[in-house]
């Protein structure tokens, strides 16, 4: 997908810089409210996610050993964390050989540029409903780029 023109690219990383994210969107960042997931895993990480189904998300990993992927709950989503500093940078889901993702707003360099946060309650949804919601809200143009592979 090409986001030429009036796209905004927000950059971020984990604390040590081993995982870097680029989130590109044509939406006004001030209109994108981070969604704070109320599951126990996300609450313990203070995670609130942003995405744009017409955007692009790139997760660049310095080397394979720096990436820790964790599944919990239904196991349908993978939480992408830094194996070195522990920061949760994104969540992804593979569907029909396509990677969908949302970035943890807390790892962005300028999370203040985003809109007011809200709460999401995926625990209230069944497995199919969760996936359907992700396919509507998350970035379908997500790349996980691991250096050296």
UniProtKB/TrEMBL annotation:
Pfam families: GFA (PF04828). It comes from the Bacteria. The keyword Zinc applies. Transmembrane segments: none annotated. Residues 10-129 form the CENP-V/GFA domain. Keywords: Metal-binding, Zinc. Belongs to the Gfa family. This is GFA family protein. It comes from Marilutibacter chinensis. The lineage of its organism: Bacteria, Pseudomonadati, Pseudomonadota, Gammaproteobacteria, Lysobacterales.
């Amino acid at each position: 997908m090409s986001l030429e023109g009036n796209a905004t690219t927000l950059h971020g990383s984990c604390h040590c810089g081993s995982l870097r994210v680029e989130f590109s969107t044509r939406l006004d960042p001030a209109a994108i409210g981070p969604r704070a997931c109320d599951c126990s895993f996300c609450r313990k990480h203070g995670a609130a996610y942003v995405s744009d189904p017409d955007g692009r998300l790139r997760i660049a990993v310095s080397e394979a050993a720096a990436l820790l992927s964790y599944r919990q709950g239904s196991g349908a989503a993978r939480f992408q964390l830094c194996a070195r500093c522990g920061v949760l940078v994104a969540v992804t889901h593979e569907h029909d050989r396509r990677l969908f993702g949302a970035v943890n707003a807390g790892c962005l360099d300028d999370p203040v540029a985003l809109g007011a946060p809200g709460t999401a309650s995926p625990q209230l949804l069944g497995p199919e409903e969760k996936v359907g919601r992700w396919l509507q809200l998350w970035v379908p143009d997500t790349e996980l780029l691991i250096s050296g592979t």
